[in-house]
Amino acid sequence: MQKSRRVTYQILYDGAEVGLSSRCESLSYTDNDSGNADEITINLSDRNMEWALGKGFVPEKEHDLDVTIFFHNMTNNSIYQLYHCGNFTIDDITYSGGSGGHKCSIKGVSLPAGLGFQTGKVSKTWEKVTVKQIAEEIKSKYGMENLYFWAGEPIIEKVDQEEQSDSEFIAKLCSDQGLFIKIYKKGLVIFDKSMYEARGITATFSETDFEDWSWNSTLIGTYTGAKISYIQVDKKAKNKKEKTKIISVNVGEEPRILVLNEKAGSKEEAERTAKAKVNSENEKAVALEFTALGNANIVASCNIEIKGMGRIDGKYYVTKVSHDLSGGSGHKMKVSAYRIFTRL
Predict the structure, then answer these.
(1) Residue 119: what are its φ and ψ, rounded to 5°?
(2) pTM over 0.85, yes/no
(3) Which residues contact 293 (CB under 8 A, 6 or more apart)?
(4) Could you read off the pLDDT of 127-165 as tens digits, one per residue?
(5) How far apart are CA 7 and CA 59, in angstroms?
(6) Helix (H) or strand (E) holding 167
(7) C-beta of residue 231 within 8 angstroms of C-beta of residue 246
């Protein structure tokens, strides 16, 4: 007989068990593949208003949460599945009360606490450098432990960080170079998405697996090529008019051309930028969203397959997974994905 499905949690506060695990009534967690930090909301019981009144231990902002979820009896062949959500900096705390009792809601983001990672404005010029070298410096600046890098390392002639936070700068730099970045509290992951798209299938779904779903195919805002113009500076030219030239580079082909004006230090860099922009836009060409029973193996950046649904069938790359969990009713997930396509 199949045992009832349930969910339990391990929630450590600054690395220690302080009672949050047993007080957790429900949890929402959003796992993003790139561009946005992961987010978590933990809803806890505040027995007798102990926290609101400041009695004993009280959770505070800017402290660390280390969250692991245990899924019990979710499959026929396992006692439980372990899902480590990661480390989060507490950035919002809400207390409430009423007929349902006293509650505390804690929100966290997977970003370093303080030190201006998101807000501090920095101006700096980088020359003859790679994305990996810049990422290494930023990682060290904020005391992050790890950098995982799966991509090529072409030399960037010059790039300016102009009154940008380090978070904003490294995210845009990766985007311009056709790379994707996931920022964790304790590290950075930078990858070439085509490498991830080439990996195998994590799970296969059919319509019977879905509580609800939607699929969209669009031509609007998608492209078959791009034209990019950049300024080339010739320091050796004596004539002022010859010192700067506007160079145009084409990638892809007609009929739908994206026109860009971007900074670039070379033809190769301009081509990388143009291809990156087109590929990014084309991710929305075929998009899928669905809600299903939670699966601890489905994470942002994994690949899934859809079968038995006609034109919806295919291999998809997961961009976002939102988990809603409670100890009593189990686990549901909402998944966003796009159909894998041929990149420029």
Answers:
(1) -115, -25
(2) yes
(3) 74, 209, 211, 330, 331, 332, 333
(4) 999 999 999 999 998 888 899 999 989 999 889 999 999
(5) 23
(6) helix 166-176
(7) yes
